[in-house]
Amino acid sequence: MNVVLIISDTFRRDHLGCYGNEAIHTPHLDRFAKRSVVFDNAYATSFPTMPMRADLYTGRFTCTYLGWAAMPADEVILPQLMTDGGYLSMGIVDTPFYTSRAYHYDRGFSNFLRNPGQGTYRPYDRRDACYERRYEDDYFAPKTCLMAEHWLERYGQEQFFLYVDTWDPHEPWDPPAHYVRRYKPDWDGKSVGPVYWRWRQRGITEEQIATARACYAGEVTMVDRAVGRLIDRLDTMGLLETTAVIFTSDHGFLIGEHGIFGKALMKDGHFYGAPLYAEIARVPLIVYRPGREPGRRHAIVSHPDLMPTALEIAGLPIPDGVQGRSFLRVLNGETDHHRDFALTTMPLSNPGEVTRVVDNYDRKTEVFLPATISTREWSLLYAAAGQPVELYDLKADPRQADNVAEAHPEVVERLHGRYVALLEEVGTDERLLEPRRRLQPNLRKPALAR
To answer: Does one domain contain both 303 and 426?
Structure first.
């Protein structure tokens, strides 16, 4: 069984029609979803970009020991296992961090191509982006997916593992104008970038938020068309009869929700955490496997589960040391239960430590970084003993507007206990575990949230 794994960075789950959005145009992925299995409770684990890829490569909870860093040479990783298992493995990406600073995320593939242009500079710097664009195919997601189509035309008759990763719809949000004007007909052509802070405190206006949302939605629609074309290529070549296809994202983004414009709070080279609400923590996950009935699954799954699942689909053994669990039985419809909860967190660190948590830049961590512990019913945001705690009833309050931690201390205690048990199970260092083991909830909201 061939395997195609497609990652679209920062693609919000709630922007897809198959997840209930009726305003944003995603016809290709919605059509793909109708012939696939759609997972309603898929969650990021290690956040954001490269920590998620580390989880996917290793099948481990790398938030507890690796973070945003080079892939260690002794890690057993998915591309190498596919190659060693007899698969022609190909990585085609435009996400810049795979090879920058000797990160070695190109390791293990039979071959690897990076579509250049996406840079590691600050958004809107434009020093190394492709601003000679004339046509849509010159943009990153369309070009990367077209490169994958060309590769399939040459090697599609082999037994293959194709890994495609596009940074779109990651900022900067600058798709072709026709996509933006679908959502904002009076768009003046100017993009609005995230401030990674409380947007009202930074002087961002409602109109600017509306522009940012329209530009982001335009990128989503552009990605939908690019990925849809790639899936259509598999179909026209007859490869969907012998190929499993997985589409997912690493995380979402806040474009004004909860008062935040960005995926984290940063200021003057210091890091103030990332409240990982559902808009960020929940991710799209659509899985097609030949011969399986399409449908929806409510089982909770997370990113470390992708590696063992892909190996099992490919008929390859799952190595010792993998902490994720294959959800193949859920995919096959044999069960609709996989995990009791999902953990979403930035790489664990303590205040005062200098670390890389959201990109290639070192930043001093000023606060304990909150983790999110999610069940089907509840979402707990917890950082460490004495830190503010937020609890949300996802059934009654899916937008997470009403913090009910004070009214449900027993739920806070139960979810915190599951969090600590998982950290212990995966062997978290005591330096990181000790301040998170004790439950002394502070039910006041943090000052930055006011």
So the answer is: no
